[in-house]
Amino acid sequence: MSTEFLAQCSAIVGDSHLLTGEAMRPFLTDWRGRFTGSALAVARPANTQEVAALVSLCAQHQVPIVPQGGNTGLVLGSVPDASGTAIVLSLARLNRIRNIDKTNHTLTAEAGCLLQQVQQAADSQDSLFPLSLASEGSCTIGGNLSTNAGGTAVLRYGSMRDLTLGLEVVTAQGDIWNGLRGLRKDNTGYDLRDLFIGAEGTLGIITAAVLKLYPKPAARMTTLLAVDSPAKALALLTLAQQACDASLTGFELLSEFCLQLVEKHFSALHTPFAARHPHYVLMEISDTESEAHAQALLERLISSAIEHDLVRDAVIASSLSQSAALWALREHISEAQAAEGKNIKHDIAVPVSHIAAFIKDTDALLQTQFPGCRMVTFGHLGDGNLHYNVSAPAGQSDTEFLLQQEAVNLCVHDQVHHYGGSISAEHGLGALKRDEIKRYKSGTELNMMVAIKRALDPLNLMNPGKLL
Ligand SMILES: Cc1cc2nc3c(=O)[nH]c(=O)nc-3n(C[C@H](O)[C@H](O)[C@H](O)COP(=O)(O)OP(=O)(O)OC[C@H]3O[C@@H](n4cnc5c(N)ncnc54)[C@H](O)[C@@H]3O)c2cc1C
Fold first, then answer.
1. Rounded to whole angstroms, how far apart are CA atoms 464 and 45?
2. Please, which residues have CB within 8 angstroms of residue 379's CB and are 6 or more apart in sequence?
3. What gap in Å lies between CA 48 and CA 95, rounded to an integer?
4. Which atom of ligand 1 is nearest to the CA of 144?
5. Ligand 1 atom closest to Cα of residue 334
6. Cα dihedral: 134, 135, 137, 143 (round 10)
7. Does ligand 1 have an atom closer than 6 angstroms to the CB of 337?
8. Residue 58 in contact with residue 87, Cβ under 8 Å?
9. Whose CA is nearest to atom 41 of ligand 1?
10. How far is C-alpha 18 from the chain's CA centre?
11. Residue 3 alpha carbon to ligand 1 centre in Å
12. Cβ(231) to ligand 1 under 6 A?
């Protein structure tokens, strides 16, 4: 079967775009290099029609499909398992911006467009596409949609679901659904668009999307604020929301240990303060009026925060390069912790009102169960989303500490559940958290998810073994 099947795939995408053997290697290993799967082939179609023809062929031969964009996902969703029975369907060649409608404030992009490419296309029309992630030079719109990606401006603009008006999808049967509607109002039945967003490729292949554009702000201003505790950071968030309203774009929490790691592993990067502080908030506002207006707004906010004893020290970036230097502290945390060694990562969300209590209680619980463990806590406090990572105690090897991964995950995720949160805020479930989610979702919710999967993909060929 497989020779005849591969010949038919080649006939659809062309010989040079059907990869086998060694040429498949980069598509089979996940971003963090933790797992390498196996596949029949990697197919690189050029357009929606070729995707539809391939999916239809796979349905006929009952061959599973693993959709792949930039392969920057962090939960083993975009790589095949070890069975070697699936094809990887790379969307990278569907990389055209089809249309920009300046009056409707929309941009239609194919699924393989890099996020950065879409940001630049919007910028060239004096507009803003606000999704922003550290992986934006490598991740694709199809991957962003399929994981409902978040990032650093969710507080102001929302996540990928909020930024999308319409989709084009190839169904599991190989039909093309043209849902590329640029409508802000459409109450004509079930919202199929929202089913495919965040589905991690388990319901169909997204081939294009209509995305929302925004006016570019007249000024952006960044400040780093030293605070005593997450509780004070939370009170500062409330104050900032009252003072800045929609101008508040980003509100990130960074612990002192995170910045120590950044300074240790990147000698060019430093905190701008003379003294050390327990926590920091990196805040950004986008102003529609002017830089002077933004500066005055921030200065008023900081004076009020100092008066309320919420802030110990503050620095406002007075140039783009200073702003970039402050953001660099935040953006280098992931690399700094990787340079320090392996740790146990959690991408969690709890209601914003509970986040300080969650950190306090869970830090204490982890110290009783795993004495001396070091917390690398940072993230999008304004969205209630933290990267809550646990490192080995000083002196203990990572390998020895990682043996306790399951117990650490259980402790953290049970706490997340207790506080009404989610064990995956941004990255999805993939193969990594597929089984763990069963502990936290009700049978009723899981049954509805299974019913949707069975209805849309009865042969279970769309990214099987992921999410469910
Ligand atoms: C340094 C770094 C920083 C990151 N920061 C963030 C962050 O701030 N916020 C955040 O949300 N994520 C973040 N991520 C995770 C990752 O970049 C995002 O999940 C991104 O949206 C994945 O896009 P991708 O094109 O790489 O998708 P892939 O990794 O290729 O795929 C992700 C999932 O989507 C499916 N898929 C891909 N394309 C399609 C398609 N066209 N149709 C159907 N299914 C498809 C895949 O099968 C897989 O299940 C980060 C990753 C890295 C490495």
1. 21
2. 252, 253, 385, 386, 387, 388
3. 11
4. 21
5. 1
6. -140
7. no
8. yes
9. 142
10. 29
11. 32
12. no
CA 311–ligand 1 middle distance (angstroms): 35
Report the alpha-carbon distance of residue 222 to residue 226 in Å, rounded: 14
In the three-class reduction of DSSP (H, G, I as helix; E, B as strand; rest coil), residue 145 is classed as helix
Which atom, in ligand 1's list, is nearest to the CA of 134? 3
* Closest atom of ligand 1 relative to the 91 alpha carbon: 41
**Ligand 1 in contact with 151 (CB < 6 A)?**
yes
- Per-residue confidence in pLDDT tens, the chain, 468 aa: 589 999 999 999 999 999 999 999 999 999 988 899 999 999 999 999 999 999 999 999 999 999 999 999 999 999 999 999 999 999 999 999 999 999 999 999 999 999 999 999 999 999 999 999 989 999 999 999 999 999 889 999 999 999 999 999 999 999 999 999 999 999 999 999 999 999 999 999 999 999 999 999 999 999 999 999 999 999 999 999 999 999 999 999 999 999 999 999 999 999 999 999 999 999 999 999 999 999 999 999 999 999 999 999 999 998 889 999 999 999 999 899 989 998 999 999 999 999 999 999 999 999 999 999 999 999 999 999 999 999 999 999 999 999 999 999 999 999 999 999 999 999 999 999 999 999 999 999 999 999 999 999 999 999 999 999
Indicate whether residue 426 lines ligand 1 (CB < 6 A): yes
How far does residue 466's CA lie from ligand 1's centre (Å)? 14
Residue nearest (by alpha carbon) to ligand 1 atom 8: 151
Is the pTM here over 0.90, yes or no?
A: yes
Binding site membership of 149 for ligand 1 (Cβ less than 6 Å): yes
Domains of the chain: 2-90 (3.30.43.10), 97-215 (3.30.465.10), 219-334 (3.30.70.2190), 341-429 (3.30.70.2740)
